[in-house]
Write a structure and sequence with these properties.
Helix 1 packs parallel to helix 2. Helix 5 links the parallel strand 5 and strand 6. This protein is 24% helix and 23% strand. It is of the alpha/beta class and 339 residues long. The protein starts with a helix and ends with a strand. The strands form 2 sheets. A 9-stranded mixed beta sheet has the order 6-5-4-3-2-1-15-16-17, with no helix packed on it. It has an 8-stranded mixed beta sheet with strand order 8-7-9-10-11-12-13-14. It binds zinc ion. The site of zinc ion has 7 residues, from helix 3.
Length: 339
């Protein structure tokens, strides 16, 4: 694996250097095999990491290598969207390798019948108690107190914002045809969801927020407004990404942190792919459990079938509102205009 990391480092070095001068926001989508770990690095101000993937040295080493590529020597803010093992499991080992200043989460684990979740939460609590970390329990409607980006919390601990965000609030015509699914009563329902704005660009990261909770955000009125980039909820499982959400936020680009055999379900993939403004759906992996009809072209996929090389995707946001996505496997960049 060391060899792969070294190769990835070499390939991506120019990206890291490019950032320093440009005034661009860089967002690194780590390949944590169907978990989430996304690192936002604004040109000035504080960086923000969302989740840290699974437990294990290999996962933590991978994230440290990616932080190095990003030019990050400490993580200013680490948001834990929820306490499932594929999001919080990697936190203690990551924090043992790189300084973290502040943790942000939704509060208390309420999913007590899942052993992996209970253990992951306990390990995280132990780490919080033993360290000297700042800690925020995020609440819907709150703007996170960080510099460099505007981060609005829209969901947390099962609750969502009660009023539309500024500029949002239009009636959502997709509500009637978007079927209703029950809440899961899992940590997914409790995900910290965020709308992140940098310059003119808006991004949605809702963690693994569920279909039923999306409805509270989107029906009858769209409380989020449109976004440019949708970080696909729950790795592309069909328990998230309802038509009500996708028609309402109408992303121009979607980025899916699926694994080779996890997430990217065909029906969710179709809803995202057919959403009204979508130009490209990027994937961290080819989904080998679906077919070619439910995978993006190889150029839009970081990791193809075969030995895993931990390729990642980088979103570059220019202050003008134009943006680009780079595939670390091919080193090819696709540009998207401001509008
Ligand atoms: Zn997950």
């Amino acid at each position: 694996m060391k060899r792969f990391l070294a190769a990835a480092l070499l390939m991506a070095t120019p990206l890291a250097f490019a950032q320093k001068k440009s005034g661009d926001l860089k967002v690194y989508f780590a390949d944590v095999e169907g978990g989430q770990a996304t690192l936002f690095v604004p040109p000035t101000g504080e960086n923000l990491m969302v989740d840290a993937g699974w437990p294990g040295a290999a996962n933590a080493d991978k994230l440290v290598a990616l932080a190095k590529i990003a030019g990050v020597t400490k993580i200013d803010n680490l948001v834990i969207t929820h306490f499932h093992i594929d999001h919080v499991g990697g936190v203690p080992e990551l924090a043992a390798r790189i300084p973290v200043t502040r943790f942000i989460d939704h509060g208390v684990n309420r999913e007590l019948d899942d052993k992996a979740t209970v253990t992951s939460y306990q390990n995280y609590q132990k780490m919080l108690a033993n360290g000297h970390y700042a800690h925020i329990v995020a609440k819907p409607g709150e703007i996170l107190p960080l510099t460099g980006m505007h981060v609005e919390v829209v969901s947390a601990d099962g609750n969502v914002i009660d009023k539309p965000l500024a500029g949002a609030g239009a009636t959502n015509s997709a509500c009637a045809a978007s079927i209703i699914k029950p809440v899961e009563n899992t940590e997914n329902d409790r995900s910290v969801g965020m709308i992140i704005t940098f310059g003119k660009l808006r991004m949605a990261d809702l963690g693994d927020l569920t279909w039923a909770k999306e409805r509270l955000l989107m029906c009858p009125v769209n409380k989020l407004g449109k976004v440019d980039v949708y970080i696909v909820s729950h790795h592309g499982f069909n328990r998230s990404s309802s038509p009500a959400l996708l028609n309402g936020i109408a992303p121009r680009v979607a980025i899916m942190d699926n694994g080779a055999t996890k997430g990217a379900e065909a029906d969710a993939w179709d809803i995202i792919d057919h959403s009204p403004r979508l130009k490209d759906l990027w994937q961290l992996h080819t989904a080998i459990h679906t077919g070619a009809a439910h995978n993006s072209p190889d150029s839009r996929i970081a990791n193809l079938p075969g030995p895993d090389a931990f390729h990642y995707l980088v979103l570059t946001v220019h202050p003008s509102g134009s943006f680009a996505v780079t595939n670390s496997r091919t080193n090819q960049t696709v540009e998207y205009p401001a509008h």
